[in-house]
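Agenda item 2: fe (ii) ion complex prediction
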Amino acid sequence: MRDLPWPARVYLVAVIVAAAALLVRSTITSGAPVAPEDLDVLLVLALLFLVCESMPTLLNVEQFAVSVSFSASLAAVVLLGPDGAALVGLTAVVSVRPGLPLVKRLFNGAQFAVCGYVAGWVYQALEGRVGVPQVNAFDDLIGPYAAATAVFVPLNIALTLTMIGLATNVRATEVPMRAMAQFLLSYLGYGTFGLLVAGLWATVQSISAVLVLLPLFVARWAFGQYHAQQRSYDATIAALCQAVETKDYYTRGHCTRVSLASSMIAQEIGMGTERVRAIRYAGMLHDVGKLGVPTKVLQKDGPLTEEEFAAIQLHPMRGLEIVRGIGFLDEAYAGIMHHHERHDGTGYPMGLAGDEIPEFAKVIAVADAFDSMTSDRSYRGARPVGVAVEELRKSAGTHFDPVMVAAFIRALDRDPWQPPRRVDSPPPDETPIKDHDDPTMPIEVVTGQ
Ligand SMILES: [Fe+2]
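Presented output:
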């Protein structure tokens, strides 16, 4: 609690006080939030809520997790009413999540209680009948239930995002609108499971909760496994990337930025989600073959001998050899292998031209050259974005594919590029180098040595 900024503390206390006030009020007005004959329903739904809440699915976004527990809260809206739904939500305080701080538990319990109560109130206000639904009256529940769900889900997200915004530097407005819309829609969809639990209660009682939510729970768990796998892929790629960048002081962060620029071009030319992910990996790993080039050649300041230049030209092939065993890279191999081919056929390693060059390689070539030009190098400062774009334009049709250059310029117009921070002088043991990716400063090769 002491680690929280004061606005977050005030907000936390306000949400807890609101939840407590709602429960005290219902106890005063009705004697108890739930009638004794409904205690078994409360117990089953609270247990279900706890199981789901204890095993949330981690999202790709750091520190964010979701659970399907709210389906149990919404079932409680129908079976028990607002007070019961609030009590079910309150059990989030005792969820089995080792290491979850008490502050987060209290906030989760309180906000779920508030959401459950408000959703239950809306349900009743729209004349939704509280209790086990009768088969012939089920249709009458659908409207009020939909309204309760439409209130519960956005309220839950708004309360949580406000807390995240006050407690961290992440702002709700920083979450992409498309991702937020998908998140909201999928949650509204999951909300229907609460209605199924309530509807089946008349025939199979407590088993209905297991019948409906268990498959859903398994699906969410599988989804979580998929994300965990994606994160381990990302960590593997980042480790390889870091290994390359330790050889080269001035190109730190280059892989990540090439990856970002490549995905901007890929999205602009309409690549699907899976291909964009693959090109992101290809951008990260495009220079991994540098690991197979002697550091003294990479760091040589001045003209290279033919042998040394040949060693540099081998890095795309070396890169392919290094990552060949990584199954999930798919099309990224072609990007790594051919990112130094040129549109006019004068590149390396194969001298491919025009449409012979794989699409991934055409994209990475543009992204690679752009980041190289807009970053500091030992022999020159970073060029402004406008100058780099002009350079790309001049070389479109010779060095670069004009379609990719045009797509990148369109993407940059929409999402302005954030050039990297200026690079301080390197530590004394790290020698300045020439950059083989910089199209404005070609490597000099001296023959006959
Ligand atoms: Fe390269």
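Discussion summary: The pocket of fe (ii) ion is lined by residues 286-287, 315, 339-340, 436-437 (CB under 6 Å).
Owner for follow-up: CH.
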